[in-house]
Amino acid sequence: MVSTRVDSECWIPPSGVDDLYKATSGNKFAGINRPTAGARGEKVLPVGTAPVQLYSLATPNGQKVSILFEELEELGCPFSYDAHFVNIGEGEQFLSGFVDINPNSKIPACIDQEGPSGKAVKLFESGSICLYFAEKYGKFIPENLAARAAMMNWLFWQMGSQGPMTGQFGHFFVYAPAEQKQARDYGVARYGMEAQRLCDVLNRQLSDRQFLLGDDYSLADIMIFPWFRQLSHGYRHGSGLFAKVFLGVEKYENALRWSERVEARPAVGRGLRVCNFRESEKGSKPWL
Ligand SMILES: N[C@@H](CCC(=O)N[C@@H](CS)C(=O)NCC(=O)O)C(=O)O
Asked: Does the structure show a pLDDT above 80 at 151?
């Protein structure tokens, strides 16, 4: 059994967690969280004319879905969607219309109004949304069981490891309360190391392949690309330091080449921009 030091030099938990929550309440990002689920207010979601309604934001989790949607449209599938902004900084994910689709209050969420037997299907979790539409149209997903299993390995790796760990790194590197220096050091070290290790996993897989599964671009590439890009082009600390430099992302040469290959696809370029606040005055699909 591992023994834990408990003395005056050590961190000792208060009797309950609420005191610790209070210490984060002034922080824009930490302060939005509460230990309970459910709607915090009423708001009916907007609904457009397309069969599929997407409620999202251009974060890596949102981009996985919008890239797939743009790819399906580009292939000429009988598919179209309306995209609606959800301002997570303002807490719109906690309003009743959104919670009715996603009880977990996170973007992306989606409704397919033309589901099986013409019934609407509510969808949440980016991986579940992507798999539903890839299966519905039989695209970006191998038919062969073994190849499909190989793809699932990567999809679950993305959802269980790459996304959450990279996201926690980003939280401690960019968003956590500025004055909590020791907590940030530890969080950045723990998740930074894991983010690097996951990049190394990806880099090794891509050492002799064009795409994650070989020669064919698949849902695995669509879902893994946005989170790698968040490290290579995204997270930037207020001091100006980019995660790319801080974590030494240049060394993942195979992954960087793959990432450029994926990003060169026109549908990917558009999918990255869906529900992008920086271009919000032009609408949720700013190229239109
Ligand atoms: N596992 C979920 C994660 C979704 C997620 O974390 N979304 C973030 C934005 S990237 C969000 O909505 N955050 C708002 C909040 O935490 O309140 C998925 O892949 O869909």
From this structure: yes
Distance from the alpha carbon of residue 7 to the mean position of ligand 1, in angstroms? 37
CA 139, 140, 146, 152 torsion: positive or negative?
negative
The reported pLDDT for the residue numbered 19 is 87
Q: Whose CA is nearest to atom 9 of ligand 1?
A: 107
Answer whether 139 contacts ligand 1 (Cβ < 6 A).
Answer: no
- Is the CB of 32 within 6 Å of ligand 1? yes
Can you name the CATH fold of 145-282? Glutathione S-transferase Yfyf (Class Pi); Chain A, domain 2 (1.20.1050)
Angle, vertex CA 91, rays to CA 85 and CA 95, nearest 5: 80
> 0.90 cut: is pTM over it?
yes
> pLDDT digit string (tens) for 110-148?
999 999 999 999 999 999 999 999 999 999 999 999 999
Domain ranges of the chain: 52-137, 145-282
Residue nearest to atom 16 of ligand 1 (CA): 106
Q: Is the CB of 126 under 6 A from ligand 1?
A: yes
Ligand 1 atom closest to Cα of 57? 9
Please say if the pLDDT value at position 30 is more than 70: no
DSSP symbol at 159: I
- The first and second tokens of residue 108, run together, are 């992306």
Q: How many angstroms separate the CA atoms of 194 and 162, rounded? A: 9
Superfamily for 52-137? Glutaredoxin (3.40.30.10)
Q: In CATH terms, are 52-137 and 145-282 the same topology?
A: no
Residue in this structure with the two tokens 């989790």, named with its chain if needed: 61
Distance CA 133, CA 223 (A): 13
Measured from the CB, is residue 233 less than 6 Å from ligand 1? no
Do the Cβ atoms of 53 and 111 come closer than 8 Å?
yes
